[in-house]
Amino acid sequence: MAHDPTLALTPPSPAALRGLRVVEMGQLIAGPFAAKMLGEFGAEVVKIEPPGAGDPLRNWRLLQDGTSVWWQVQSRNKQSVAIDLRSAAGQDLARRLIAEADVLVENFRPGQLEAWGMAPEQLLALNPKLVMLRVSGYGQTGPYRDKPGFGVIGEAMGGLRHLSAEPGRVPVRVGISIGDTLAALHGVIGVLMALRHREVNGGQGQVVDVALHEAVFNCMESLIPEYSAFGVVRQPAGSALPGIAPSNAYPCSDGWVLIGGNGDSIFKRLMAVIGRDDLAQAPDLADNAGRVARVAELDAVIGAWTAQRTMAEALAALDAARVPAGKVYTAADIHDDPHYRARDMILQQATRDGHTVAVPGIVPKLSATPGTVRSSAPRLGDDTDAVLAGMGLTAAQIAELRARGVVA
């Protein structure tokens, strides 16, 4: 993949996934997010999009010159090849790409690849080393496999939506597509484990099956053990952390501050800050169980202290006492924060339309092989000719496919 000279980025460095070839088939969030992460750490990612509109994410949320600024993040370090997978010729081109790939990422509904003659057994016969990441609403098996599933449904079925509310009020969205992102992260973990297995076990590939609701459910902590052992159905708790105290959001004169005073020694320091040494020394508040029993009282006294102060005043006092606390950041807060800047978590990225936009940096931070942005997000089909030529097609063959509408 060619380096884009318009990007003012970090110098080239050894890439953890250099030499890894990824074919991305799918759209929107979960599958493309997983491929994005692989690309950030050096993998060559070829994204197959349908001719015409391409991935719908190109047109989601706020657009700049007709293209979503979200696209600039989700599709950096990728090559775009426009192929009509509904045609037999397009399916053949996809199979030829997959035959030379290490990883295939797809998030179609279960059965779609099979309908195109690309079932796992067929692709693994074509390319035995292939690792296939398949992300779907309910997984590739089970009674719900054919139901349509989006991230928001996975969040509900996984147990998250029930808890994301104030008590007695309607369950609310987290505010982002967290179900899709959690599925993507689990998918990346699965791909890396499968690649490690391939490395030590004779080069054999396999299928990584990720269901949206299972990725959410995997993060639900003690939800099921508590139900199994005690018959307790955990309920919404708003901004509090149930069973752990004190930990909540507290009102200041100009906003909200989050305080985590739930460690035994931290609690004592917190009480000293707010002038309640009597509570710091109370025998029944020396451990978490006792504090949970009096959580309403503790939240009230902490809230009374914060309400008399600005966020800056409260945070300065809490920081000095080494009590974990923070403000509720908005996009503007994140964009201007010096800590985000110091850790390269806000990057200036050029677009192929001549703009520069601030985008999130790369996570995680690797000391020897850090992730990089090597190319900006492509326009639809930007790399079709180059990729097909690399597969051995002549200019005349590519032109004939384009005339038939197979590629664009």
UniProtKB/TrEMBL annotation:
* Xref: Gene3D superfamilies: Crotonobetainyl-coa:carnitine coa-transferase, domain 1, formyl-coa transferase, domain 3
According to its UniProt record, this protein's enzyme class is transferase
Note whether Ribonucleoprotein occurs among the keywords: no
The GO molecular function terms of this record are:
transferase activity
Query: Does Transferase appear among the keywords?
Result: yes
Task: Report the EC code(s) recorded for this entry.
Answer: 2.8.3.-
User: What UniProt keywords apply to this chain's record, in alphabetical order?
Assistant: Transferase
**Name of the protein this chain belongs to:** CoA transferase
